[in-house]
Amino acid sequence: MTISSKQLIRNITSITCAYVGRKALTFIYFTLIARYSGVEVTGAYFLLVSFAAVITSFLDFGFSNTLIREASKAPEKLAFYLNNILTAKIFLSALAIVAGTFILIFFDYSLRIKILVAMLVATMIFETFAETFFSCARVRHHMKTEAQTLVIGQFITLMVGGLSLWLYPSLYLLILALLLNQMCHFFRSYYLVVHTLSLPLQLSFDKTTFISLTKIAIPFHIAVLFEQILYADAFILKYLTEDRIVGLFGVSHALINAFRFIPIVLGLAIFPALSSFHAFSPSKFKKLFQGFYTVLLSLVAPLAIFLLLFSSEAIDLLFGEKYIESSRTLQILALSLLPLFLSYPFSKLLDACNKQLLNATLKGISLVIHLTLTVVLIPSFGAVGIALSCLLSYTFLFLASMHYGSKMLPHVYSFCFKNMLYVMLASCFMGYCLFILKLFLHPFVLIPFGFFLYISSLILLRGMTRSGFNKDEAYREWLLLAKRALR
Fold first, then answer.
1. Taking the model in full, what pTM does it have?
2. Distance CA 133, CA 137 (A)
3. What is the mean predicted confidence (pLDDT) over 325-349?
4. Which end is more exposed in the chain, N or C (fewer Cβ atoms within 10 Å of the end residue's Cβ)?
């Protein structure tokens, strides 16, 4: 299936705006919990959400990404792949229910814990099937309904959870808010697949197809586990420390997680087209990759500088003075965003080029490095140890992914480092100016001023050539961008 540039831009815009709205509502929800409950309650809630995030990735097992990639290359097999994957997910969901029941009985947990775990398991099952249904919509480049559902579902969470915090603070109601969110996702995605896309749903099991899809899915599963790495850290932190430290780490994670979605959502929108272009149009494949890399680089560099400079102010303003200890953790996590963001284009490049096993191997090695460093560093540095391990493991992943990605696209090194030089120089200049002015001006004044400095510096740097400053070269890309934005 071919896709026009206009349709691709529309898909990216709709899904990105939806994720921005969803993350904003999620962040507001967590901020309310942090402000109107104790640090220990915040830590307990974050631990439960971490449990759900990690287990959901096991329920999906990488099948959603597998469905997108394979069906993008053979659209006529979409229904066939979907029905086989649904059969596998029903089996995985049954295993999750049995395993959860066994654990609750074996460890003799209290009734409160049993109810919370049961609610979380139901939430995860709704989420994993909704993800598969929405994957079909991405293959068909029909992302409008998914975008709307993301915002509606998170708004439900905010309303139910917000009322709970106001009227009757309870972990039961906070988790119920998440459950209602995923139920909304499931029913709307089901309606989309059956009525809008007209895909027949039936249990189907083809042994050859199932084995083939599973082999492809395993590397994707490892990659998804890597994306949940900070949630997994919460369990290690809880084991080695206490709920209060988990709560302090949770607010830094929430602030960073409000931005970590950017490469993820852009990758979701771009991956089907990237897979298709790899098979049918190498020139478009290269152009799309370069655009993906440039956008992420241009966004993450100034973002990291802002968070590095205003970490204490941000935590105090959003969560309160009781969480100010986590500012150092936030600063290091902000720096780790740079290699994390820049590894995503190469990760999607390897997946689209049928190198998902290599990509999973690199992420698996990075995951082992991260977990090893986390266990070693937490006893001495607490939550800061997690941030340091993130910075080191993400840097390894970026360098390794770029090395192998360069084998898929010739001359990618020169393109990446040239753009990185421009952007980092502009970001550092902006950061230096803000560091000086921070003593005299309020952060709310400095943020728009810093953005102006960054854009101006980037325009000037892009115009610098060996023969001097080329005004046309400097403004050409930005004028085109403005025209597209206002079209």
1. 0.68
2. 7
3. 87
4. C
